[in-house]
Amino acid sequence: IIDKSxxxxxxxxxxxxxxxxxxxxLESVDLPLGTTLRSIYDDxxxxxxxxxxxxxxxxxxxxxxxxxxxxxxxxGFVDAITELLKVRADAEKLMGQVTDTNRRLQDAGRxxxxxxxxxxxxxxxxxxxxxxxxxxxxxIPVLEMYSKLKEQLESKRYYAALKTMEQLEKVYIPxxxxxxxxxxxxxxxxxxxxxxKDISMSDLKDFLESIRKHSDKVGExxxxxxxxxxxxxxAVAKQASMGHYIKPVYSLNERTHAHTPNGxxxxxxxxxxEADEEILTAQDLVDFSPVYRCLHIYTVLGDRETFENYxxxxxxxxxxxxxxxxxxxxxxxxxxxxxxxxxxxxxxVEDHILHATQGLVTRAxxxxxxxxxxxxxIAVLRxxxxxxxxxxxxxxxxxxxxxxxxxxQGFGFPVNRLxxxxxxVRDQYNETLLKKWALVFREIFELDNYSPIPVETEEEYKLVxxxxxxxxxxxxxxxxxxxxxxxxxxxxxxxxxxxxxYASLKFSxxxxxxxxxxxxxxxxxxxxxxxxxxxxxxxxxxxxxxxGLTELVQIIINTTHLEQACRYLEExxxxxxxxxxxxxxxxxxxGLSTFKDARHAAEGxxxxxxxxxxxxxxxxxxxxxxxxxxxxxxxxxxxxxINFLRSTFQVFTHLPVSVSRLQPLHVSSAPLSGSCGT
Length: 678
What we know:
Blueprint: H1 2-27, H2 33-43, H3 47-154, H4 158-172, H5 180-242, E1 248-252, E2 255-259, E3 265-267, H6 282-285, H7 289-300, H8 304-322, H9 333-356, H10 363-385, H11 391-410, H12 416-447, E4 453-455, H13 458-467, H14 473-477, E5 482-484, H15 489-508, H16 515-543, H17 549-564, H18 566-577, H19 591-619, H20 636-652
Antiparallel strand pairs: 1-2, 2-3, 4-5
Helix pairs in contact: 3-4, 4-5, 4-7, 5-7, 5-9, 5-11, 7-8, 9-11, 10-12, 11-12, 12-15, 12-16, 15-16, 15-17, 16-18, 16-19, 17-19
GO cellular component, one term: exocyst
Organism: Maylandia zebra (zebra mbuna)
Keywords: Exocytosis, Transport
């Protein structure tokens, strides 16, 4: 019983403790109630009933505690209510005062509020204005740069416009890129670049077309300046040879100055009107700004290679057009001059582009272009010069080639092949001269009377001697009037040979050859004149049927004097070239053999004609075949023959001593009558 009683006591204690924990959990507002209530119903049967009993007991316990607490604080509560009722009247009074004060404050603050709102609104406007000014300060440079860009485009300052675009893109637009107008600007810039690119290319095409049309003017100016420079150098060389040399120094303000003996500067004034003109360059005659502008634009746009290729391709096409000659170019010197002017103008422009730009054209490119052009020029000149049969035209062509070569050589182009070509042209020039002098010689021979030259006075004698080197002591001692042994053709032939030498010398001028080479050229061309042209004319003259024995004798006399004059021709050439005849490899004149051959031909012709004449006398004789015996007198035909031979041999007495004896005469075998046998 005791143990059971003890167990019940322990159970009650545990149950009391458990419900105490449950009530503590229920009274706690932080713990969830679901778990606690579930434990009440799940622990033991009838737990709900016992829980309700315990809950009621606990409520009653709390009610008693609340009642005790209220009883303890009731008097204080009553006292507080009493005090509060006392304060109520003061509070209502204070409330009235506060309300009145508030009303007066509201009335007084209404104006302040209005002013404050105005101040706030002004402050907002001021802040907005400051913000606007700040943003405008950022936008104004952009707008100014864009306006500047438009002005540059209108004034065609495209390179500056591209620089402005670059600044807009990299500096100005990024600062205000949030604005729509800047976005529109940024979208327009690529289009403007393409427009600039197209416009500059169009300007370049116009420039190329213009330069193609005006190349001849540029070339004409350059060749004229080269010719003036060559003339000036010739004058300087002449002054140097005379001991009055003035050394050219430099060109100042496009006028040539020179040092005088006192060290001062003097202007070169040769009296030529062209020398007073301002010296023009390619840049003065041609506006190269489209090329520079287009080059800079394409460089800025990063497309320089395209521009270079296009420019070089177009210029090569123009070079081919320039090098194409006109079909009738060989007819006049003006045709050659226009041809050379265009070529010089083309390469003067290219040389200027080479030195004025960096890399647009290179020295290798211009050398390649020049070599191509030089081959074409040489082929064209070979073809067209072969059509020329006028020596004056060939000489003018040579002078043009020399000026052409000197002009381009002054710009750094190699021209040795052109001077080599001039040797070919020289051979052709000599051929045309030989043809021309062949006509001159024929005309002289046709107009000659083949009789000694009569001189009536000393003046006439001196005139003849001045034209031909004739010296004979016996004739000089004779009184006037008197006769010179040669005919009128001899001084004329001698004069024409000298004229030929002068004409041949004209071609040798300005060829940049030594005196020895010029001397050799003159002697060779003179030999051709003597051995081929004059010799052929003499041979043809001797063979003409109307030339009789008297004319043949005079021809022999003439050739003898011309042969003797050959040494004077050599001295004449020596005086021109200042090359001594004793110089090694100096060519000698072949006049001796030429005139000897002509004399031998004349002698043979005399022999032939004399035999023919004798045959004619004998064959035409009237023979008396029935004569019984001779009457002691010669036949009439025989007397005529003897008289003819006497007069003919009288003519032979005028032959020079050096002339070889005539060959033995052949008499016809026709039978003779009478006592006069063969």
